[in-house]
């Protein structure tokens, strides 16, 4: 249990810090300002606006985690879509898809990445060198498929006049932007991600308390999520010790294309059955500390959980934000679109892993 605590406590600390950073940045108006800036640049062009959203969603997922994209970016862009009289489903699906498939670039993009990083003593640079090619596939291929699915929406025109709802800037927005940018730079430089996230959260808390303390009211601290994740770590570890590792020892995947595809496919299937975080923990023993096998498993559990609603916590949170924004989530449609996107993304992501290594 001591080894488990040494692995999980930094992950939980990062979860706390990054959740506070994202929430405070949102309250400072960062995501709203980004959305309106995209609308002004697009000048009524739906394809330009959507491509801008793809870039923002991919960057948000990479540096601030998939949950930030699903929870905080989604309602802002849905409100913008309604304001511009654009079918909001294109924006909704872009957020949830890229929150999952785009979470391959950096350790902070997904909790599964942090667990892999700690298990194999990878630096941020090592992780990026290993995962950059699958990460590119995880953004480009889903975006292409979404463009085909929503081609009729992309042919429409939007109202370019968004000045009336232009959010006000201010010192707190500037400081929040600088802190988030500094956090991203620190992550790329290889800083301890947990320490960086907690320091950024502390800096934003202080700035908000001084400049606009009203924004601190009812600040959601994710204690329930942290306790739930911690309990999940313990349960899966007990299962591994009791029987799971012994059961999985009957198969030792090879580091060739069939072996990597098989491991990624198993990861995606398990994630869609039980959720991606326990899926990674349960199957981690199959990687045998080999970077290529670890990368294949991450491709499966990160880019694959787009078929069942419970496969990713980000998807569950996204659905709640969509309903709150008045955008119904039709799960039959979600399953069909998710399968069309997830299956080729996992397969081509594994191919990119081999070609990029």
TrEMBL record:
Query: Which residue positions does the secretion signal occupy?
Result: none
Transmembrane region positions?
49-78, 90-109, 129-150, 171-189, 195-216, 223-240, 260-283, 295-319, 334-355
Gene Ontology cellular-component terms for this entry are: plasma membrane
Q: Name one GO biological process term.
A: response to arsenic-containing substance
Q: Where is the Citrate transporter-like domain?
A: 9-311
Coiled-coil positions: none
Q: Extract one GO molecular function annotation from the record.
A: arsenite transmembrane transporter activity
Which InterPro entries would you find in this protein's record?
Arsenical_pump_ArsB, Cit_transptr-like_dom
**Name the UniProt record assigns to this protein:** Arsenical pump membrane protein
């Amino acid at each position: 249990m001591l080894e488990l605590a040494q692995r999980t406590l930094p992950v939980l600390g990062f979860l706390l810090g990054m959740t506070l950073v994202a929430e405070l940045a949102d309250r400072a108006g960062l995501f709203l300002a980004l959305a309106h800036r995209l609308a002004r640049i697009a000048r009524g062009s739906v394809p330009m606006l959507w491509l801008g959203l793809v870039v923002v969603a991919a960057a948000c997922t990479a540096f601030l985690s998939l949950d930030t994209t699903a929870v905080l970016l989604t309602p802002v862009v849905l409100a913008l879509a309604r304001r511009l009289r654009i079918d909001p489903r294109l924006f909704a699906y872009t957020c949830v898809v890229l929150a999952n498939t785009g979470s391959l670039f950096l350790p902070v993009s997904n909790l599964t990445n942090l667990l892999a990083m700690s298990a194999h003593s990878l630096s941020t640079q090592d992780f990026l060198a290993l995962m950059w090619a699958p990460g590119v596939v995880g953004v480009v291929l889903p975006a292409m498929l979404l463009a085909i699915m929503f081609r009729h929406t992309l042919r429409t025109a939007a109202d370019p006049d968004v000045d009336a709802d232009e959010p006000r800037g201010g010192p707190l927005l500037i400081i929040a932007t600088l802190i988030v940018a500094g956090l991203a730079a620190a992550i790329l430089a290889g800083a301890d991600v947990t320490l960086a996230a907690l320091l950024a959260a502390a800096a934003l808390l202080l700035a908000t308390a001084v400049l606009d303390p009203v924004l601190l009211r009812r600040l959601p601290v994710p204690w329930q999520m942290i306790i739930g994740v911690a309990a999940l770590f313990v349960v899966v570890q007990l299962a591994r010790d009791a029987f799971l590792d012994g059961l999985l020892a009957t198969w030792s995947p090879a580091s060739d294309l069939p072996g990597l595809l098989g491991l990624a496919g198993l990861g995606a299937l398990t994630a869609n059955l039980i959720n991606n975080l326990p899926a990674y923990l349960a199957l981690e023993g199959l990687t045998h500390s080999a970077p290529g096998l670890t990368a294949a498993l991450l491709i499966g559990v990160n880019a694959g959980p787009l078929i069942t609603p419970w496969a990713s916590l980000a998807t569950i949170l996204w659905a709640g934000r969509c309903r709150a924004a008045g955008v119904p989530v039709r799960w039959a449609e979600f399953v069909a679109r998710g399968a069309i996107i997830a299956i080729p993304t996992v397969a081509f992501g594994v191919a990119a892993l081999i070609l990029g290594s």
